[in-house]
Task: inverse folding
DNA sequence: AGTAAACACATTGTTGACAATCTGTTCAGG
DNA sequence: CCTGAACAGATTGTCAACAATGTGTTTACT
């Protein structure tokens, strides 16, 4: 019923850790059409196949996935909650686009929230959760040795995600995972720096150590610094990217 | 076109400050049906006319407001983003219901976020914004003298809202105003304590003073304490409320 | 030639009918 | 009497057509 023959192959491993998968194996017949295409549109946006700032046509999207406009609208509504899409009445939906200043605001907010998550995690984390975190660190080391950059990205998302989970604060989780994380992933994906992971993983290790020692204050501090590093990196790339876009536009205006 | 003859009279003054109104006077023909009933359902939930935890029937809601299920579903989707409603696929929507622990989590998150807002506001607030805040304090004093409890509530919402605005961080604003505030208002409305405002207004004054003196650290501290007071208050009322509900249920089960 | 109103087109908002799924009940079996 | 499966009813998900609104173009006027 759903067109799967597009170039947009599933690739839902990328979000497998963000949303708890119910079934153990392939969950072909997912709960609802809107949810199914939601994931696909998400990855399209995050990868930049739907560029930041571009207009989204409901009908075109619906036809692309072989469904009607109803579920498409629902998916867009959810994407709006995830900050990946901006909608205005009677005008339509656009892919979100951040100015440099807004990106900094976003990172500042993230920094505060994940700092809070660290502090909570340090006092509430269970031995199992801690073990999972340490497993993850080992995997990241292994991936680093192999030069597997994709898993490094994935692992980084997982690292932050697990700490947020360990915080045990449902509203914090919802705010970060349901609200901010997708937008962060989008800019991280499109503005990532391949040199970062080496240092980032070392920082991860120190954060986990602090949490293991139940030192919430330190863990929070380290996390905030860690995120600040990421912010600087992404900011530079975004400035570069926007400069290119501006240059292209002026060229187009001349001709 | 829209049934206005229900007992649910408009009463949208209550949210007039949360959403910037475009037109200067009566905006009868609002942008979209979904947005119109959204406000009405919001107030129904906040006032407890739709009780916490109760099931929401799409068809019934649609008929109540004389519209079809389409816009109703959209409104429910928005309410889900505002945390006032919980939806699960193929099952339906329920009015959100917090346990005591979740309420504490919510307040903890709010505390951190509004602390951040204070710190930002202290460094970024404009003279105009500061003047508006001080006007508001004066109004609250006047309302207190008259014993106008309704305006006190409204003024409190506005107080926090204006500080959040003054923070200048768009994502912080969206997270608090678009995400958490409605749920907070719901529990505040249903669990409010009439004695609080006297002290609360004094706390407000000190926070504004700290912001005016550009002392972000102090403003943040005072705000977090202020919110902690509110939390304690609401928590006690919620425990009481839930005890009553539990008692009623056991009675019902016996008969 | 530049500006503003009027038009046509495209797109979104809304509706009612139909399909798929869940929930609660009934009925059979142990 | 209790447990479990089949059934019926209700409710949500999806669809396609229609209405309302915004956007861009054309055209008339200064």
Result:
């Amino acid at each position: 019923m759903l067109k799967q023959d597009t170039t947009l192959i599933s690739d839902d491993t990328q979000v497998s850790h963000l949303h708890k998968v119910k079934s153990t194996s392939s969950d072909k017949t997912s709960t609802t059409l809107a949810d199914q295409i939601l994931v696909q549109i998400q990855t399209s946006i995050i990868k930049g196949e739907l560029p930041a700032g571009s207009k989204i046509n409901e009908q075109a999207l619906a036809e692309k996935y072989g469904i009607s406009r109803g579920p498409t609208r629902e998916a867009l509504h959810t994407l709006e909650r995830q900050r990946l899409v901006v909608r205005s009445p009677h005008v339509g939906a656009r892919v979100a686009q951040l100015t440099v200043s807004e990106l900094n605001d976003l990172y500042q907010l993230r920094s505060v929230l994940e700092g809070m998550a660290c502090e909570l995690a340090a006092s509430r984390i269970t031995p199992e959760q801690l073990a999972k975190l340490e497993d993850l660190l080992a995997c990241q080391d292994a991936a680093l040795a192999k030069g597997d950059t994709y898993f490094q990205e994935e692992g980084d998302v997982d690292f932050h995600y697990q700490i947020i989970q360990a915080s045990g604060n449902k509203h914090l989780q919802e705010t970060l995972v349901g609200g901010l994380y997708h937008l962060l992933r989008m800019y991280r994906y499109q503005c990532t720096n391949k040199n970062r992971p080496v240092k980032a993983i070392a920082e991860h290790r120190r954060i986990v150590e602090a949490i293991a020692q139940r030192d919430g204050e330190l863990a929070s501090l380290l996390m905030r610094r860690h995120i600040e590093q990421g912010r600087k990196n992404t900011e530079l790339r975004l400035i570069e990217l926007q400069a290119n876009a501006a240059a292209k536009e002026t060229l187009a205006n001349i001709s």
